[in-house]
Each structure stands twice: as C-alpha cells, then as structure tokens.
Amino acid sequence: MGRILVLLAASLALAACTGSAPVPEPAVDTDCGTFDVPLGQTLPESATRCLVEAVRAERSARLRETRYTDEGDPVPVTYTAGAGGRVEVVTDSRQDAFGERNVTSQTCTGLSVDAGQLSFADCSEPTPTRG
Length: 131
Prior knowledge:
Elements lengths: L1 H17 L11 E8 L7 H12 L4 E8 L5 E8 L5 E6 L10 E7 L2 E3 L2 E3 L2 E2 L3 E4 L1
Parallel strand pairs: 1-2
Antiparallel strand pairs: 2-3, 3-4, 4-5, 5-8, 5-9, 6-7
C-alpha cells in the first residue's frame, strides 16, 4: 500500500511540474476502436458502423482516429456519442504545423457515413477546449 501511495504522489508531482495532467474521459458503453488513417484512406466500415449503431440506439460510444495532413502531421479526432443522438467531436491540431495548433470541441447531430467518411447534418462552432 505504501508503494502505491508513493507512486501516486510521484505521478501527481510530475504532472504538476509539467502543467499538463491527463484529463480523464468519461466512461462509455462501447469502444469503437482507435485507428491511424493514412491520407486518402477511410476508417474501417466496422468502426463507422459501430458508432452509427450506438448513436441510433442512444448508447454512449467512443471512436478515435488520427488523420494526417498533406505534410504528414497527425491530427487526432475523438468522437463520443451521447444522449439524444449527439456526438462530441474533439479535434487536436496541436501537432499540425500549418494549422491552428489547438484542441477544439463541437457538438454534432445527424451522423451518417458517406464514402467511408463520418459526416454530420449539423455541428456547433468549434470551441477551444485546452491546449
């Protein structure tokens, strides 16, 4: 027990020093996976189907993908389905050398899949969240 407390204290101290403690994500019913999606490619059909089915059933679910810019910079995107068919879309462009280099969140509705790509009928304006 003592070792666990020492490790926890060390972890908290390290997080305080770096100024960027991890932000815990809420638990979800379904994990639809985490994917690296090369430029010009799409998510696997099973992943998009998983998220669409969760939204239709109003179950919570999460899908993560990392897209790449033309220059090869990674841009992670997390889709979290919640109540009422809403999906929170968090885009982390901090590693995009030619982008805005921030983390934004928006709430979207009307999820569909078009040519292997997730799309939404309506989304709020992107709001900076952290970064």
